[in-house]
Automatic annotation (TrEMBL):
The BHLH domain, residue ranges: 7-61
Swiss-Prot/TrEMBL keywords: Nucleus, Transcription, Transcription regulation
Protein's name in the database: BHLH domain-containing protein
One example GO MF annotation: protein dimerization activity
Superkingdom as given in the UniProt entry: Eukaryota
Length: 111
C-alpha cells in the first residue's frame, strides 16, 4: 500500500518535471522570435513578460495589417498613441524604452 503511494508520487513528480520542461521550451522558442535584442530575450524576460510582449506584437501586427478606421491615432511630442473603440491604448515612444531597458523604441499596451 505504502509502496503504491510512493510510486504515484514519483510518477506525479516526473510528469510535473516533464510538463515544466516542455513549457520552458515553448517560452524559450517564443522569446526567440520576439523582435527584441537576443541578450534581453535570452536572459531578462520571465514568462509573464514573454506573454505580454507576444500579445503586444500580435496587437501591433493586427493594427498594421488590418488597421481599421476605428483606431484614433494621436501624435504629440515624440510619442504615438492609438486608441480603439474598447479604450485599448497602444503607446509607442522613445522614453519607455529607457524605463524597461529595451531597444530605442518599445511598445506598451495599456488596458
Amino acid at each position: 500500500m505504502e509502496r503504491d503511494v510512493v510510486s504515484k508520487r514519483v510518477r506525479s513528480r516526473h510528469a510535473a518535471q516533464h510538463r515544466r520542461l516542455n513549457e520552458n521550451s515553448e517560452f524559450e522558442q517564443l522569446s526567440a522570435v520576439l523582435p527584441i535584442a537576443r541578450a534581453i530575450s535570452s536572459q531578462l524576460l520571465d514568462k509573464a513578460s514573454v506573454v505580454r510582449l507576444t500579445i503586444s506584437c500580435m496587437r501591433l501586427y493586427d493594427f498594421a495589417v488590418y488597421g481599421s478606421p476605428t483606431w484614433l491615432v494621436e501624435s504629440n511630442y515624440g510619442s504615438l498613441q492609438l486608441n480603439d473603440e474598447w479604450a485599448l491604448q497602444m503607446m509607442l515612444n522613445s522614453n519607455y524604452s529607457t524605463q524597461i531597458s529595451l531597444g530605442k523604441w518599445a511598445l506598451a499596451f495599456l488596458t
